[in-house]
Design goal:
The chain has one domain. Helices cover 25% and strands 47% of the residues. β5 and β6 form a beta hairpin.
């Protein structure tokens, strides 16, 4: 079984980071967890996460009040959802950050 686990700052910005963890067995993704985190008001906040927790690949949109919106992707395999999540986070992290900050102000 192979594993990849890394963290990097988005656009070199130390306030926004991408966390990536994947396990592969026999050439197939068995477990993954990728997450966008933002440093806001002196602490790190998980804002959007794609993972295989609960036994299926899905996205969790996290909110400042502790709630989350779960989205399933029927028919998509783990590799598809991992790729979709990577693209979403790398392309839309600024939009995700703005949404989270707006929700904090409510």
């Amino acid at each position: 079984m192979g594993e990849k686990d890394y963290l990097w700052f988005l656009d070199g910005n130390p306030l926004d980071r991408y966390r990536h963890y994947v396990q592969v067995s026999r050439g197939r993704i068995t477990v993954f967890r990728i997450q966008y985190e933002a440093y806001i008001d002196g602490q790190w906040h998980a804002i959007v996460r794609y993972d295989t927790a609960h036994g299926f690949p899905h996205r969790d949109m996290l909110h400042p009040d502790g709630t989350e919106d779960k989205t399933e992707f029927p028919g998509a395999d783990r590799a598809d959802v991992l790729t979709m999540g990577e693209q979403d986070i790398k392309t839309h992290w600024r939009k995700h950050r703005q949404r989270y900050i707006r929700e904090m102000k409510r």
